[in-house]
Amino acid sequence: MGACPCGTGRDYDDCCGPLHAGVPAADAQALMRSRYSAYVREDADYLLRSWHRSTRPHALAFDEPRPAWLRLEVLRHVATGPDSAEVEFVARYRIGGGSVVRMRERSRFLREDGNWFYLDAVGG
Q1: CB of 19 closer than 8 Å to CB of 25
Q2: Predicted TM-score (pTM) above 0.85
Q3: What fold does the segment set 12-121 form as a domain?
C-alpha cells in the first residue's frame, strides 16, 4: 500500500494497518499514530473504536472542507501510571490552498483489558 501516513517510515501494512484491522496497540504512542493515520484515511469506525467510552462521541463525520494531513511529529510519550499515558505531538495540515496549520496537542490515553484508548486532549 505504501508508506504509513503516521511518519514512521514503515509500510502501512506493517505499521498502522494491523491496528486498524483490530490488533491491539503496543502502547499509547502506537495508538496515537494509528489514530492520526485513521484521520488521514477518514476511517471513522476505527477512530470511534479506539476512543474511550467515557468521552467517545456518538458519531464522527468528516466535514467539508477536509484537511490535507501533511505530517505528524511526536514530541513526547510518557507513562503517567501503570495504565495511563500522555503523547504530545504536532500535526500539520492544510485546507484547500491555505497556509499550513500547525496543531499541537497533549493527548491522554488509558489502557483497559490490554487495549489502549484515546481519552481526551489537555492542550499543547
Answers
A1: yes
A2: yes
A3: Nuclear Transport Factor 2; Chain: A, (3.10.450)
